[in-house]
Request: fold
Amino acid sequence: MSAARRCRPPRALAGLFVWHLRNSGGRQIPCRFVHLYHVANDRLITFQYFNFLKRMYVTRCNKDLSQRAKPKSDSIVSPFHELQQLDQEKKVVHKISPVPPVHQLWSETSGRNELREMKSAAETEDSVMPVGAESKEDRQWKEMKLRLDDLPGILARLSKIKLTALVISTASAGFAMAPVPFELTCFLLASLGTGLASCAANSINQFFEVPFDSNMNRTKNRPLVRGQISPLLAVCFAASCGIPGIALLTLGVNPLTGALGAFNIFLYTCCYTPLKRMSIANTWVGAVVGAIPPVMGWTAATGSLDAGALLLGGILYSWQFPHFNALSWGLREDYSRGGYCMMSVTHPGLCRRVALRHCLALIGLSTVAPVLDITTWTFPIISLPINLYISYLGFRFYRDADRSSSRKLFFCSLWHLPMLLLVMFTCKKSVLEKEDKGDLPGGGHETAMEIRLP
Reply:
């Protein structure tokens, strides 16, 4: 046996010593707790066991400090029983200590505050219940009632009034750029017919896309999606706009303009709308739809499809790619959620390249205008700064491919098109200059001669 074994006390003696300390509570020698050995093994006593012995010593030596749980009182108690409980509580408090503990004061104050809150809640319960009932009624599904006061605004949103205004303005630009004298009656009839055709096409487009628009944040508040108007009423509104519009263009202007209007409605509703969920070719088809209105304005004024009409259509065709591609870049999540096949979602690199190409194409198309004898040579020079600026933003969009560059390009396209058309109109060759060259189409030469005569 080793020397360490000999020096250690036997385990039985250690166990008796611990039993003696537990019974006596260690009143005389509290400092000996540090020198105790654990009964089960040879290691020193743990810190948890030391705390246990300390609690035992406190509870046995000072019995007045022990906590006593108070039973919960019943809801209905006699007053005599309450008086007895109060007497007992007073006696217990007097026995424990002359100074009441802090936690009792805190509990009393908190209990008073709770009673006050309960009383205030009971007083305001009657007034709160109707509000809750109203909120529950608002959350429930209910039938939308159409009011006559709201009908003009609903129909304006159904026809996309802002887009229709853009279509009318581009058709008016085509009419103004035609190399013929301005005729007010024909201009008003052409503008009204083009606007009605645009309202019909937009209404049919929303009618077809109701289940898909409900999944997009951008289009979830449209009238048909929210149920503010019935599908039957939307179709009737589209028919009441489309049929008079095409009849007005055909009979009041000329058959060529009416045919272009009918073809544009068919192209937008039957080709572009279903292609949005099938192929990225929908962007090119949509660009053709946007390029037809200035051509309609040109044919309304001249009655023929000339090179100037195709040039105006080409400018609108190229302008729509940086405009729409930049817009769709920030709405990629919405388009993918709605199930639309857009370049920005499926081919992001091609989306940026196409936008840059058509920004540069605007510079070339502006240069072709004086070659076709539509404008003077000052037009490509004056329009060069704005064309270079949109091309620079298109390059930034192609290089950075972020939301910031796409937003800058989109907002630039909003003012670029009216600025370009305004510069083009100011640089337009006058009717008298073309009359000297004999370039007036469709009998415009005789009309110009009649205007010059006194």
User: Anything to note?
Assistant: The radius of gyration is 44 Å.
